[in-house]
## 1
Amino acid sequence: MSMRHPAAGALARCRRANLHNSAMSESHSEELLAQVAALPALPGVYRYFDAQGALLYVGKALHLKRRVSSYFQKNHGGTRIGHMVSKIARLETTVVRSEAEALLLENNLIKSLQPKYNILFRDDKSYPYLKITGLAAKDGVSEVPAQAFARLAYYRGAVDKSHRYFGPYPSGWAVKETILLLQKVFRLRTCEDTVFANRTRPCLLYQIKRCTAPCVGLISGPAYAQDVAHAQALLRGETQDLLKELEARMMAHSERLEFEQAAELRNQITALARVLHQQSIETVSDKDVDILAVKVQGGRACVNLAMVRGGRHLGDRAYFPVHIEDAQALFQPEADGAEAGQGDAADAGPGHSDSESEGAEGLDRAGHPALPAPAIEARVLEAFIAQHYLGVPVPPVLVASAPVSKALLDALSAQQGVRINLVQQPREQRRAWLEMAQKNADLQLARLLAEEGSQQARTRALAQALDLPQDDLDSLTIECFDISHTAGEATQASCVVFHHHKMQASEYRRFNIDGITGGDDYAAMRQVLQRRYSKVAEAQREAGGIDFGAAAPDAAGTASASPKGQARLPDLVLVDGGVGQVAVAREVFVQLGLDVSRIVGVEKGEGRKVGLEELVFADGREKVYLGADSAALMLVAQIRDEAHRFAITGMRAARAKVRVGGGQLQEIAGIGPKKRARLLQRFGGVRGVAAASVEDLMTVEGISHALAQEVYRALR
C-alpha cells in the first residue's frame, strides 16, 4: 500500500483553496471576500444583501466563518442557491453567545424583514381571546355594578392585567361557540356596560335562560361570582372537579330540604353534561396542546395548527408559507470539498436552517456516512414553530407530524421559562388529534392548489382578452380605483392592487378627497389619479422615460421586481365607471405624460345586472363585452368589487368617527385613549358624555373629580 506524504495533501488542499478563491473573486468584490475571511469562529446570525440593498437571506451558524465561507467556496452553477450567491453584494453579521440566541434572532429577523430566500409565514397576530371583564377579587363585591358582575366578551388585541383572558383561540367562531356554551350552563351576561347600567327590566336573554339578569338584581353578587368562578374552571379544563363540586352542593341542598336550590344545580349539571357531550370535550390529562401537521405538494406547503385548550379541541387554522422552492434549494446538502468538509456535525445539525455541509464523498470528518438533510416537511415545520411562537404563548406539549430539532425546542423553552415537549408519534387521543390535523392539512392544500390554478387561468384569460404580454403573468399588476361618499360627504377614493394572481391587501391605499363639490365623482377621480400617478410621472422623467412597471433584468439575466417603494406604473389601471370616468382618467394621464392604453373602464351593463359589464378603453378602442361566463370578466369583477368594498368601509369608518366625535375628547388634557374609550362606552358617545354630570363622569374608572370637572367644562 502506497503512503502519501503529508506535504502532498497540504499542497492539494492549497491548490483547491486557490481555485475556490479565484472562482469567488470573479463574481464578488475583494472587500466582501476579505470580510468573509475575517469572520470569527463564534455563533451568530448572517444576512446577505444584493446590490440594491434588498435582503436576500438570513441564516444562523455555530461557526460563522465556516458557515458563511461555505457559500463562496464552490461553483453552484445555475441552481437557485447559485443564483442567490451570485447576487450577494454585501454581508452583515451579528455575534451572539449561544445557538439558542442565534436561532431566536434569526427567526425574529426573518419574521420582520421577510427575506426572499427564507421560508416565510404571514402571521397577523390577531388571535381572538375570550375575555371575562374585571378582576376575580372584585366579582360580586365591587361598588361599580358593571365590575361586580363580570361580562363575557369576544376580544382581539393586546392582553392586560385588568381583565381575565382565555385563549388564544384559532378563530372567532371558536370564541363565540365557547361564549354560547358558558351562557347555556352558567348564564353569564354578555351585554355592554352601557346597556347593563340602564336596564330596568330583564331582557330576552333572561327569558330564554341565557342570563340570570344581574342588571335588575335577580341574582346576588356572591352567587354570580360563584358562577363566574365555575366558568373559569371549565375554561381551564377542570371539568371533573367542577362536576364533583356541583354535585356535592346539590346533595347538600337536598339534605337541608332546599329542593329549589338543588333543582337549579341539577339543571346546571344536566346542561353542563349535555354541552360536554355535544362539544366532544375529552376529559384527558392534556389541557393545553398544539397539534401541527405539515403537507408539501406541488411546490406549496400547508401547516395546519389545531389548538386544544382546557382539554377541548377548539378548531384549527391553516398557514401557507411562501418561498418554499427557494428555501428547499438552499436546504439541499452541499457536496463541498475538503475545505467545506471541515463543517462538523455541530455546525450542521439536523435542526439547522441552513444547508448541511458534507464531505466530497458524503462522509463527515470522522469518516462516517453523513446524515441526510432533513425533509422539506421538517424544514417547513421548524420555520413555522420558530416564527409563529415568537409572539404567541407556547403550550407545554406540541404534537407534530414531522421531527423538530432539539435546539429549537430548547430555545423555546428558555424563552417561555417552561419546558416544551414535542411528541411525533402520539397515542390514543393525541393520535386522533394528529390524524384530524393531517386530514385538514391535505384538504386545505388541495383547496389552495385548486384556487391558485383557477386564479391563474383568470389572469391568463384577461391577458388574452386585452392583448397583454403573457410571458410573465406572475408580475402582471392591476390597480383599480373607486369613489365612495354619503350624499356628497366624507368622500373617499380607494386603490386596490392585484399581482401574483391575488389581491395584495398590504398595498391598498385610501385617499381622502377634499376641495371638490360634494358628489362630483369626476373631480374625485381626477384628484385621486393625480395624487397616485404624479410621482410615477416624475420618476419616469428623471429616469429618461423608463417604464417602472416592467421588470428589469438583473445580473443573472432574469427579470426581477422593482425595489420596494419605487414608483411603478401598473400594467392595467381599472376605473369603476364608464365613458365619463375613462375620459377623466385619460385627461390625467395625458397631462402627466403617461401611457393611456393602460386605462380600462368597467361600465355597468343594462339594468346594472352582473355579467353584462363592458370594458371601455381610453385609447379609442371599441367597447368589449367579455361574456357572462368569461373568466376574464370574473377577474375584473373581483377586483372592482374589492375596490368598492375597500372604499365603502373607509367611508363608513370616517363617518362613524365624525358621528361619535371622539376627537373632542382628544383635545382635553388628561384624557388618553383608554379613558376616552371608557367614557364613550359608558355614555354611548360624545353626546352622552356632554350630557353627563360631574358625579356621573366620576363613576368611570380613572376619572377623578378634577378631571370630571375639566371634561364637563370642555364639552359645554
## 2
Amino acid sequence: MKLDKVYEEKVYAGVLGKIIGVYLGRPFEGWAYERIMEELGPINYYVNEKLQVPLIVTDDDITGTFTFLRALSDYENNPDITAKQIGQTWLNNIIERQTILWWGGVGNSTEHTAYQNLKNGISAPDSGSIKLNGKVVAEQIGSQIFIDGWAMVSPGDPEKAVSLAGRAASVSHDGEAIYGAQVIAALEAQAFVEKDINKLIEVAKNLIPKDSVIYKLISDIQDWRAGNSDWGKAREKIAGKYGYDKYLGNCHMIPNHALIIMSLLYGDDDFQKTLMIVNTAGWDTDCNSGNVGCILGIKNGLQGIDNGPDWRSPIKDLMYCPTANGGQTMTDALTESYKIINIARGMNGESIVMPKNGARFHFEMAGAVQGWQVDYKNNLNPLTEINNSEGHSTEGERSLEIVYKNVSSGVNSIAYVDTFFPEEIKNLKGHAKKVFFHYNFIACPMLYSGQIVKANIKADADNNKPIFCRLFIKFYGKQDELITIDSEKQLIKPNNDVEFNWQMDVEDGNPIAQLGVKIESEDIASGKVYLDYVSINGHPKTSFMRPPHVGLLQRGKPLKDKPAEMWRNNWVKAVDQWEPMWKEAFRISNNNGRGMLITGTPDWKDYTVSANITFELVKSGGLAARVQGLERYYALEMSSNNKLRLVKMLDGLNILKEIDLDLEFQKEYKLSLKVKKNNLQGYLDKKLFLEFNDIDSPLNCGGIGFVVESGTQFTDEIIVS
C-alpha cells in the first residue's frame, strides 16, 4: 500500500478507534455479561458518568501499544528488528512498579514476570517463553492488547505484520498468545486494503498454525455465525467451550480473543454495533474493545467512526502514555499517528512527514483538536466553541476554529491545552481518583521556561469587528494553584492573521500546566478565529529547584497546609528514595544498581546541564543529558573507584572517556555536561576535563537528569542553559 494521505487517515482512524474502545470498556473491565446487562444494559456509548469515573485515563493497553513500538525508531526503523531489541525498549521505558504494566507479581502477572526476567539478564524471546514461565503465565491476554502499532506500520502486508507481531509478543508471551496477537496484527494490516470482514478473518486465520486453539476457535465462530444473526447465542457457545472457567490464569488470551472474533462477525461492519457487542459480552472489555476499535477504525476510516454517535468530542484526541520518557506522557491521537506514519516511512526508505514544519499542534486531520478544549471553568463566556476546520492555514490544509460570541470588556473567550498534570486529575478524589491512578500517572511538562511558543492565528473574513488575541500559560505555583502569565496582546482585523513569538519566563521550579489562547474585545464582538499551528521552539533556560514558596517539611510537626507537590511531579522518579523532608531539594538514593531522576522532552538537543553535587557512599553518580529513558543517555559521572568519566548508556553501559580523579564523600563538586551535535564536554569546577566526539549511533536529543548508582547524592539546584 502507498504511504499516502489515505494511509495516513486510516492510521489516525485506527489510533482513534483504539483509544475510543479502551475508554469505552475501561469503566467495567472484568465484569461478566450478566452483571453488565443487570447494571448497565447494552453498551452503546460511554458509561463513565453513570459509574462516576473519569473517561480519559491511564491504561496499559494504550501506553504499552504506543510505547513498545518505539523500538523501531530506537533501532533505525529496521524491519528486521529482533525480540531482544524490543525487550531493550521495555527496559528503557518501564519504571519498575510504576509504569505501563500490571504489577501483579512474578508468576501472577505475565508482563511483570517477563520484565523481571529482562531485568535479570534473560533476553527476549526467552523472557516470555513457556519453557521458562510455564504455559498458563505465557498465554494470558497481554500480547494482543499491545500489538496494534506493529500492524499499522505494515499496511496491506499481513505476513510482515505477523512476523513483527511474533517478535514483539515473544518478549512477554508464548504459545497461543503469540498466535492470537498475530491474528489481530494480520487483521489490522489487511484492513488497510480489504473491506470484507469475512475475507479479513480468513486471511488472518490462515497465517497461524492450523492445529492451534486460536485457529479452531475462529473456525468454530465462523460456523456458528453461518445462518445465525443472534450474537447472544454465539456468546453462550463461547462461554461453554472457550470460557474463563476452561483456562487458568487471571485473564487468558483464548476467551477474550473469541469475543473479538465474534463481535467482528456479528457487528455488521458497524463501529457502534461491533463495540456494543464486544463490550456487552464482558470479560476484559477495555482490551477487547481497543483491538476491535482499531481494526474497524483502520478498515472504515474516520467516516466509519463518525457514522453514529459522537465518539470523538468527549475524548478530544487525548492520550496519556506515562513512561520513563515523561516528556511524551501528554500526547494525543494525531501526534501518535504521525509517529507511526513516520516509522512506516522510515522502514520503507521514505522521507518523514512533518506537518507545518514539525509544529506540536497542527490539526492536519479532519476532526482533530489534539487535546484543545474550551475553558468553561474560568471563562466568563460559555458560548465559546472549538472545531477542526478545513482551510484557513498558511502552511497546511486545516486549522483549529475557535468560535466566540458576545466577547466584551472582561468577558473573554478562552481555549487551551494541558501541557502537564491536568488540574482535573489533581482534584480527583475517592473512587474516581482510585480508578484513574490504577495505572500510575507520571509526566514531565511539554514546555519549559525560556522556550519560545510560536503560533499563527487568523481572523475570519466575516467577523463583525477587530478583536485582540493573546497567548497565555498557567503554571503550578503556591499551594499548587494555577497562576497565569499572558503574552502581549495583538490586534487582528477581519481576514488578517498575526504571528506570535513568545519567550516564556516562569519562576524557577514551577511546572507549566496549560497553554492557551484568549480572545478579547472592548466592544461586543462575535465571530471566529483560526489557530493554524503552535510550535514549541528552542531549549529551556531555567533552574530546577525547590520553589521559594515551598517550605521544608518538619518532622513531628503537624501541617497547616498541604505542601506544594507539583514541582516534584515535574520529575520522573526512578530511584529508591527522593523525599520532600530533606533540606536539599534533590537528595536522591538508589540502593542497588543505577537509578535516575529525569525531566525534559525529546526535543532538546544542544545545551549544558550543571549542578553542584555532593556524594555519599555512591558507586557512581552525576548528571545525565539527552536522556531518552533509563537505558539511553549520556552522563558525566564520578565513581568510587576514583574516576571522572563520560559514559553512554545504550544497550549497556559504555565508558567513552575517563581520567583518574579522587572522589571524596561529603565534598561538593560542580559538574557540567555540555552536548552540542556529536560533541560531549565534561567540566569539573568550571574546568574542561573530558571531551569526546560520539559518531557511533549517537544520541542526538533528549531531556536531563541525575543518575546515581548504589548510594546517595544531593544538590539544591540543577541548571539548563
## 3
Amino acid sequence: MTKDKKFDKPWVMRTYAGHSSPKESNALYKKNLTKGQTGLSIAFDLPTQTGYDPDAVLARGEVGRVGVPIAHLGDMRTLLAGIPLAQMNTSMTINAPAMWLLALYAIAAEEQGVDQKLLAGTTQNDIIKEYLSRGTYIFPPTESMRLISDMISWSVANAPKWNPINICSYHLQEAGATPVQELSFALSTAISVLDAVRDSGQVKPEDFPDVVARMSFFVNAGMRFVEELCKMRAFTQLWDEITLNRYGVTDEKMRRFRYGVQVNSLGLTESQPENNVQRMVIEMLGVTLSKSARARAVQLPAWNEALGLPRPWDQQWSLRMQQVLAFETDLLEYEDIFDGSAVIEAKVNELMTDARAEIARIDDMGGVVAAIDAGYLKSQLVASHATHRRNIESGMRTVVGVNAFTESEASPLTASITDAIIHVDPIVEQEAITSLTAWRAARDEARATAATDALIAAAKTNANLMIQTLECARAGVTTGEWSDALRSVFGQFRAPTGLANVPVGGRAGALGAVRDCVKITEQELGQRLRLLIGKPGLDGHSNGAEQIAIASRDAGFEVIYQGIRLTPDEIAAAAAQEDVDCIGLSILSGAHADLVPQVLAGLAANNISNIPVILGGIIPAADEVKLIGAGVAAVFTPKDFDIPAIILGILNVIRSNHDLAPLTAKPVTPEHTIGVISE
C-alpha cells in the first residue's frame, strides 16, 4: 500500500430507523450520526405511508409502530431539529404521499436557511411495487403516475441533487420475485416513469438526460450470493442499454445505474436469530464486492427484526458490519475483481437475455400500469412466491435453523426476549392525537382551507401539483387532509390480490394429505368449510396471507380473501355475511395487541363470537399468551414455515370448535395412498 494511492470512497451508510414520535426519532438519528452513520433513512409509520392522520379510524393501533408519525410541518421540524440538512443525504421510505413528505422536508430545510438546490437524498416514490407487494398505495395507478411525474419534473428544476424516485425491486424480491422478475419488473417500472415524464411535456427534450440521471433504484440482496452479484451487474448493463438506445442519453455519467440496497429483511428468521448476522454480511457482500455494480448506499436491518422493533444497540451492530468491511478490508483499493470471470459473465448474460424477453412482454401489454390492471404482475409474483415456499417446505432449499440444523443451544442474545426488542408505549398514539388537535387549533384555518381547495382545483387540471402541495405544507395542512383532498378527485384504489390466476393444486405430499382431512371433516359436518382471511389495520405486507389463502384453497377450503387495509368492523361484518367457519388474521406491523381485541369485539357485536379466530404475524411470546387468553384459538409466527402443518392446524381448530377429535395427516408417497389417523 502506498500513501499516494487513491482509494474509492465508501458508500453512504444508513440504518432504517424511526418509531414512536418525531422527538424520539430525532434523538435516535442524532445518536446514530455520532456513531459514524453518514446518511439518514427515515421509516414512517403506516398511517403516514397511507395518507391518514393519527386520529383516523384505520390508524388505530398503528401510530408510531413501524416508523415515525408525521402529520404536519411541525412534526417534520421536530424530526429534523438540529440535523444540518445542507450536509445530509436523506432517504425517505415513502410512496403514495411522497410529494407531500418531500414538500414538508423542503419547507423544514427552507426554515433552516437551506437552499432547495442543496437538498440531497431520495424519496422512494415507487407506487408500482406498492400495488404488487407492500400495499401502501392510495390512488389508482394512472393518477399515481401523474404525482410521480409532477414530482420528478419539479425536482429536476428546483432540487437538482435530489433523487425524486427509487425504483424498488427490493419489495418485489420479498414478494417472491425471481432475479429475472426483479430485473424486468423494476426496469419496466422505470421505463413507464420516464415515458410519463417525457409525455407530460413538463421537461424540455434537451433537459431529459437530467431526468434520467436523477432516477435511482432500491434493490434487495438475497442469500444466493453469486446470483445476486450477477443480478446487480445485469442491472447496471441493462440500464445503460435502455437509457442509451430507448432514450438517446449519450453522456455515460447520466446513464449510470444509481442504487441503494437493504438486505433481505423478510429472509431473517425467528428461529436461531443469531444466524441473521452472517446472513446480513453475506448479502451485503453481494452488492459491494463488484466495483462496477457497487451500491451507492447500504442499509442493513438488525439481527432481531423478525422478533420485533430493534434497539439502538442492534442498529449499531448493523452499522459496524458496514464499517468493518469498508475501513478494515482492502476492498476499496482495487478495480472490479470479477471482470473477466467466465462464470460471472455467463450468468450475467443469461439474466440479461431472460430479462429483456420479460420487458418486451410487458411492453407488448402496454407497459407496467396495464400489466398491473390485467393482474399479470401480481399473479406472477404470488405464483413464484408459492414455489419458493414449497421449496422450503420440501427441503429443496435449506434455511439453517428453520428446516435444517434445528437443534440449538440456548442463545444469550434472546435469553430475555422482553429486553431484546423495543416496545412502543401505547400512549404514543394518544400523544400523537393530542399533538394533532393542538396543531389544528393553532393554525390559520382559512389559509389551510384555501390551500386544500386550491389543491383540489389543480388536481382537476394538468397543473403540476407540487406547487400547491408546497403551499399546503406551509399552511399547516395535515397528511390526512392532503391525501383526502386528492382522494376526492382521484378516488382510492384497491389492488387485485393476485390469487385468482394462480392455478389450484400446486402442492402434493403433505398438503394432499391435509386435503383428505378437509374432505372427511366436511363429510362429518355436512357442509363446505369456509375460511375468511383478513388483514386489519394498515399493514400491507400480504405475502404470508396470500400464501395461506392459496394453500387453504388447494387443501379444499372455500377461501374468502378481500385483500389488505380492512377495519376490524369490516372483517367482523364479512364473517357474519359469509357464514365462515374460521377467521384468519394477518398482522406484521406490531398492532396485534390493539387490532385483535377490536375484531373479537366486532364478532361479539354481530353475535358470532363462536367463530374461532387465528392469528399470524410477528407476535412476541408474551403477547401470544395474552391473545390466547383473550380468546384467540391459535397463533402462528415466522418460525412456523411448514404451510401444510399450518393448514392442518387451522382445520383442527375448526374441528375442536365442533367437538370433533383432531386429525393427523399422513404424507402421500408413491408407495401408499392418503391416510388419516384420528386421535
## 4
Amino acid sequence: MSMSISFRLHCFVFLGAFLLFTMEPLVARMVLPLYGGSFHVWSTTITFFQGILFIGYLYCHIFAKRLGGWHLALVMTPLVWLPLVNWIGLAPPGDGDPAWSLLLQLTIHVALPFGILATTSVIAQSWFTRSDTSGSSPYPLYASSNAGSILALLAYIALCEPLLGLRVQRSLWYAGYIFYVVLAWRCWRMAASNPKKVDPAIRPSSDIKGSILVSWLLLSALPSAFMLAVSNVITLELGSVPLVWILPLVLYLLSYVFTFGRRQWISPTLLHAFWPAAVVCGLSSLYFVDIGNLWVFAAHLVALFALAMVGHGELHRLRPPPDQLTVFYLAIAFGGWMGSMAVSLVAPILFNRLAEYPIILGVFALTILHLRKGDLLGALRRHPVLSSLGASVALALPFLIRSNDRGTVTEVIYQHRNYYGIYRVLNQPLKQDKFPNLSEEERYDLGQRQLVHGSTIHGSQVLHPISRRIPTSYYHRAGPLWDVLGDAKKVRNVAVIGLGVGTCAAYFQEGESLTFYELDPAIVNIAQNLFTYLVDCPAEVKMVVGDARLQLEQAPDHSYDIILVDAFNSDAIPTHLLTREALSLYDKKLALQGTLVFHITSRYYDLAAVISATSAERWEALGKESNEVLKSFQADAVYCVLRRKGDDVSALHAAGWLSLEGYQNMSAPWSDDYINTLRPLYLMLGHPPRRNDR
C-alpha cells in the first residue's frame, strides 16, 4: 500500500472518531437542562451511542464486501438536516421513565449521523485490507481511531465548552462533517484504484470458537460497564458536567490506544501484578475511606484505568486474523453496549444503591482468573515487591485513613434510586462523645433525620416533636436566609425551586402562600411522608412537579414576592436555572420590589462569580456566608440575593450582605447557548475570589 493511501485512511479514521466523540458531550450538554442535571443523563447517552455503534458495526459486517460508492451516498444523507438541533426549549419527558424519553429523542435527532460515523474505523480497515499488498496489519488504524476520540474529548473540555457557545460548536461540527464526506470519497477512490489481487487458494480462517466469542463479549462489556459505574460515582459528587463525564471516558479510550497500538506501552505481567491492588483501592474509596474528595476520585480513576488496560489487553491478545475483523469489532461493540445498558438501564431497576460497582469488579476478577490464572501467578513471582506493596497498601488503606461518615452509627429508614439520583433517609443520633450523659434512647430522640443524595445532605429535621419545626442545616435562623425570610410582618407569596425536605416551610405563617417547584416526584414523596415540615406549615403549601423553568412560565406575571432558587448543590448543577434567559423569567414573575435568592452552597463550585456576571445588566447582586460559630444541626451556607437596580438594599447591607460587583470580571455571563462550568470549579479549588466589601 502506498504511503498516501495509508496516510489518508489514518486521517479519515482520526477525523471520524474526532467528530464521533465531539458529538457525545455536545449532545449530552444540549439535553442535560431538560433532565434537571440528572447524573443518569450521561450514562443513558453513552448507552445510546454504544447501541448505535453496534448497529454501525453490524451494518459493516453484513455489507463489508459490498461497501463502495453507494455507501458514500449514505454518508452524505446527514447533510440534509445538520448542524445538530438545539434542544433547549423542547418538551421535557412525561410521567414515564426519563431514560426512555431521552433515548427516543436521541434516536430521532442524532442516530443517523452517529451511526454513519460509527462505521468509519471498520470501513477504513476494510478498504485497507482490500488494497494493501505489503501484508501490513490494519489494527493500528484502531489506535488512530481512539487517538482521535481522546483528542476530541480533551479538546471539548479544554476549548469548546470554555470558549464556544452551542451554536458555534454545532456549526464547526457541521463544517468538520463536510470535510469528512470529502475525505471519505478520496479514500474510497484511492483504495478502489489500487485493488489487491486475492489469491483464490487463500481461504478465510476457520469459524470462531464459542469460548473466544464469550471472552470478547465479557472483556468489552466489563470495562464499559465499569467506566459508567465510576462516572456515576464521581457525578454524584461533582455534578453532571462535561469535565466529570469525559475524564473516565478518556481513560477508557486511552487503554485501547495503549493496547492496540504498534508498541506495548506497559508490560502485561506488570499490569497483572498491579490491577488487583488498584481495584481494591477503588472499592475502599467507595465503602470505607474518606481521603479528601479529589483523592477519592483519583482512586476510582486509577481502578478504572487498571481494569480497562487488563481487559483490553486481553482483547488484543485474543484478536482474530484480519479476515474476521468485522466479527471482532461487532463483538466488541455489542459487549460495550451490553455493559453500558446493564449500568444505565438495568442497575437502577435492580439496585437502590451503586451495587453494580463491586459486582462488575467481582465478575472481572473471575474472568481474568479463568483466562490467565497461570500468568497471574507468574506476574506475582516476577514482581513480588510491587505485588506485596500494592496488596499491603490496599488492605491497610481503610485502617490508615480516617473513616468517613459511613462509619457513624445511623439507621437507614428509607433508600431509593431513580433516574435523578440515589436517596437515603437516615436517623442520626447525637454523638455519644459530645453528649456522654445521655442514654442511647435520649440521643436518638434528640437526634435528627437526614435526606442524603449521594454524599450530600439535602436537608435534616430534629426528631423531637417539640423542636421539629426548627429550620436546620443550611436554613438555620442564624444564617443568611433568616435576613430574607425571617420578616413575617407582611403576607408573602413565595416560590421555591427545589424542595429538599421542605425546610423552608418553617419560615412561613398562616395566610401566606408557598409554592415548591420540584423536578423529581420521589423527593415530593420523601418530603411529604418522611419529614413533617410541609405537614406542620400553617401557610398554604402548593406543589408543582416538573422542570422549574417550564412550569414557572405558567405562573401569573409579577405574582411572587420572593423566588428562592435552591437547586444548586454538590450533586448536580441545573445550569439552565442560572442563565440570562432564566433571570429574565424570574424578573417577569417577581412582583415590584421582589427579591430573587440563590442558595449556592457547594464544595466544588463558586457560583457567585457566575451570578454576578450574568445579572450585572439588570440586577444588584449581594452575597453572604454564615460565619458564626455553628451549633448542633447547623451547617455553613452561602447565599446570593438579587434585587432590581434602583431597589432599596440598605437593610441587606446593614445585615452584613456584601456587593458581588467585584466578581463580575471573574466569569463570563451564562446563557442557554454558553455555559462554562470549569470556571467556577477553578475559582473554588484554585483561587477563591474575595468579595468586594461595600
